[in-house]
Amino acid sequence: MKDAFGTPQSLLILGGTSEIALATARRLIARRTRTVWLAGRPSPDLEKAAAHLRGLGAETHTVAFDALAPDSHETILGKIFAEGDIDMVLLAFGLLGDQAHDERDPVAAVRVAQTNYTGAVSAGLVCARALQAQGHGSLVVLSSVAAERARRSNFIYGSAKAGLDAFTQGLGDALHGTGVHVMVVRPGFVRTSMTAGRPETPLATTPEAVATAIELGLRRRSETVWVPGALRLVMAALRHVPRPLFRRLPL
Predict the structure, then answer these.
(1) What Pfam families does the annotation carry (predicted)?
(2) What are the residue numbers of the active site?
């Protein structure tokens, strides 16, 4: 169970090699988290991440999980929840893609959409049902400011994140009053290996800053977290810019 400050004892990360998720795990382990499940495609990086968290004092397990195999989600995730209550699920997998390439390759574009949206819908529903059955827990979903308005430079990724964002908000409404807390996290540009080599946007942030915001959101039982917080005002303005002008902005 969580303590008075919202820190979970047990954590399940979907997307076990995510730099944001691992920064969050490190921060939570330093507080109170003692059991961590890292779910992701089997790889040396997944095992390295698990070994690192064990070194910090957490009992850490890895489990093979593929966002693009929704038929397997109920079985795989059900086995994890059968081991004991999970206080927090962090849905952190995603695929940025290559906009210029993916516009010319519909199969690649669909893979971005299926990873960021379809796979997340499947895993999110399975975890939500399990959390509801145990009567407590938080489901934290990594969305993006890209979900707020599609931009020419990343509308394939942005449209998938928009779907994920809307789904998570609706799921939060459906679970209201059940004891399950659902939180959407909307970071801006995050400096990670996934974004390496790409031009930074204003208000760029780090995995550690996102992790700090997630922990604070858990304590406050927030429903939406922006990272950095100033992006909330920026996107509120951009959302209402007329399309002819929006097309001319250097976004």
Answers:
(1) adh_short
(2) 157
The answer for residues whose C-beta is within 8 angstroms of residue 141's C-beta and 6 or more apart is 91, 120, 124, 164, 168, 182, 183, 184, 185
Query: Is the confidence at residue 150, as pLDDT, over 50?
Result: yes
For the chain, how many residues are written?
Answer: 251
Strand order in the sheet with 10-14: 59-64, 35-40, 10-14, 88-91, 137-142, 180-187, 224-227
Spatial CA neighbour of 153 closest among 192, 203, 198: 198
> Which residues on neighbouring strands pair with residue 59, listed in sequence order?
35
Q: Comparing C-alpha atoms, which of 191, 186, 211, 193 is closest to residue 33?
A: 211
In 3D space, the residue among 92, 20, 31 whose CA is nearest the CA of residue 56 turns out to be 31
Report, in angstroms and rounded to the nearest whole number, the Rg of the chain calculated over CA atoms: 18
Q: State CA 114 to chain mean position distance.
A: 15
Q: Dihedral of the CA atoms 165, 67, 214, 229 (nearest 10)?
A: -40
Per-residue pLDDT tens for 199-251? 777 788 999 999 999 999 999 999 999 999 898 988 888 888 888 888 888 76
Which residue in 122, 204, 191 sits closest to 163, CA to CA? 122
